[in-house]
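During the no-cost extension, the postdoctoral fellow (Dr. R.K.) reprocessed legacy sequence entries with the updated structure-token encoder. One reprocessed record is reproduced below for audit purposes.
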Amino acid sequence: MLRSTTTVRVRYAETDAMGITYHGNYLPWLEMARVNLLDEIGLPYRKIEELGVFMPVLEVQMKYLKPTRFDDEVQVHLLIKEKPLLRLSIDYELRRGDDIIMRATTWHAFMNAKGEPIRPPEIWKEKMREVFAKKS
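Re-encoded structure tokens follow.
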């Protein structure tokens, strides 16, 4: 398993007329957590893209449990349960203190600049072997 936590603070611009976080604003928080995880393991997303490899989101599942409001501090807990091969599945749990406010899953694939599916680059496979060996 591979885990990471990223903290975000709800900005005023992310809230709607009811004063709660607009539902679409959670997606950038998930992206921030993914980018942060790759930085933490020493494989920045920028480095992957420089190889001509992209990891688009294929599918998103989100379940909103409680609202957040301006200035709330939210922890985005990210979990990759299994060493990714051709596809990557990431689970998220967003918390405000002890409250779980949302659960989500994203699925990703590896693609080249033309949008064609490809195998992950060797640097990705090596890093996943290394990281998952340490976590075992």
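The helical segments are 26-40, 45-50, 122-135. The chain is about 25% helix and 35% strand. The remaining legacy entries will be reprocessed before the final report is submitted.
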